[in-house]
Amino acid sequence: MSAARERVLANIRTALNRTGPLADSVTAVLDARLENPRANVKPAVDGEVVQQFLSKLESVHGAVVRVATMEKVSEAVDAHLQQNALSPELVVAPDPLLEDIPWSNRFAIERRAAKGDDRVSVTAAFAGIAETGTLVLLSGAESPTTLNFLPEDHIVVLKVERIVTHMEDAWARLRKERAKMPRTVNLITGPSKTADVEQTIQEGAHGPRRLRVILVG
Amino acid sequence: MQSRAHEFKQRSATALLDPELKRAMGKAKGGFQQKRRNAVDALPEFEALRQAAREIKEHTLHNLDFYLERYERAVQSAGGQVHWASTTQEAREIILEICRNAGAKRVTKGKSMVGEEMGINEALEQAGFEPVETDLGEYIIQLAKEPPSHIIAPAVHKTKDQITDLFHAHHQKYGLTDRVTEVPAIVNEARTVLREKFLSAEVGITGANFLIAETGSSIIVTNEGNGDLTNTLPRVHIVTAGIEKVVPTLEDVSTILRLLARSATGQEMSVYTTLSTGPKRKEDLDGPGEYHVVLLDNGRSQMLGNEFHEMLRCIRCGACMNHCPVYQSVGGHAYGWVYPGPMGSVLTPLMVGLDKSFDLPNACTLNGRCKEVCPMSIPLPDMLRKLRQRGHEQRLTPFRARAALGLWAYFAKRPRLYQLATRLGMAVLGSLGKRRGRFRRLPFAGGWTDARDLPAPQGVTFQTAFRKRGSQK
Question: Rounded to whole angstroms, what are the CA distances from B255 to A33, B53, B273?
């Protein structure tokens, strides 16, 4: 299909009144724009970022509980299960952060990707974005993507120092901390929902019915 | 998808008499407009973002070949493959080939307008695959064997009762024999049926809201999570996208994302914004083994060089149709092709041919609301006017309209004659209609009087009244 490629590119160049590719001097400027990405307009974020993150997340029906230390995560998960009358079976992402948690022996824990009938997953977030109450989750050996979508309850552990102000700040961290883009970056803002039946909002469309964030610190 | 845009007049006449459609559209309209209003009012930077987004898109379009090549290189270095298609026919062939090579039977799909443009479902079915739409709205209309009637709310024309009937007719084979009549139960039933499809599909096809040149990522923006199950569970993920979807960097896409959901549904962010970059990594526990992108031109490169190039800034939010009185009255199906409403009335003539869709640019009151709400500041009414002019130049205007315009022009170019004629006409109509004050029927004006009365003229002509006011000052 490289003939089509050449045809499309040639049509584009003709439309732009050019006969061939851009001159090297021009592409150098454009490459510099790609290599040094600049933020454009960033909306003002009022008040303290953690507070802003929490209130934005709650406004889209994400449930949040804040605990002081990682040791308390197990308790918070238990509370969520009891509150929603769920059995203590968890699929936990094989993330070192989560492995170090002293889990209550009440839980039956498996560490793997999700299956179609898993009820509850626990994963760790890469970042939280205060601007919109958005969680940033990255795929990888330690964080299978299916855990974010198949189970009915998705519990996300987020360390408070991972909260950033704007989306652009999350990209900056991603570039700094990861050599390459992971296969998937999931920006998650609330539980799954649909309004396709008469514009009535219904949560729990195809993804999790409930999103619970455990904020640590 | 086969265009039926040439049938706009008949289809809109039928639509106007459809009480179910009127009910469904009435429910949707106010919500969309109010939610957008609230979201925009809550963001003081909205205008600044709009300006920045416009500049980003214009910059990218002016260097489109460069950014597409950089994007392609980035996809390849992440292990993905990029396929180029000039036409929808080429795109369909590429997709079928990938599905065959994957040994696929079932193909799940995320909602995609470019997919509708390509007519993927029909092609897959004809080739013996089972395409399954997984966005709830798309799933509903797939069961009804209808095309989408809105670009972000494809089943907006359906009432709850109609959906109940559809599910009852199609879900009994899964042992789901109860009629589900309430929204939670309807959504739940679709979740149950589609979960099985997600888990068993070999190929997943999604669209793309954006392609990022910097990283080689495709982005989808959804609320249901169906797009993510479509691009994570099957062995093969195919992304379909128009060539205008590319933006340079993650920062650039962040700017436009701030406009997209607010303009579409009034959300600050949709629930899921997902970046996909290449296939599953060696160490990953899930994700597709193959990642393909099919880039479609289909007339876009032509638009790039002509007076309609600003249309390529469109991010498919649907705000224009949510604020269009014509769309709200006739619904999306009347437009006869993939894209309805104001943006569709520009795109359809450019992609399908003005001779096959001449009525669309004329089905507009030029009230300008679409331009006001467009997050990318696309001058839709100006473009519709240009298309009308083109139609006139190509002699597509019906004979009667041309004759009437010619007659009017004859008088308009002769002011004294024009004044005499209007004064005369007014006097005659005024005295004829004096008793009732209106006409129920009038020769040559059936188009008007069939649906409403024509008020009889009263007093003097506009020009006389205008002169009189001038002399009073």
Answer: 16, 6, 14
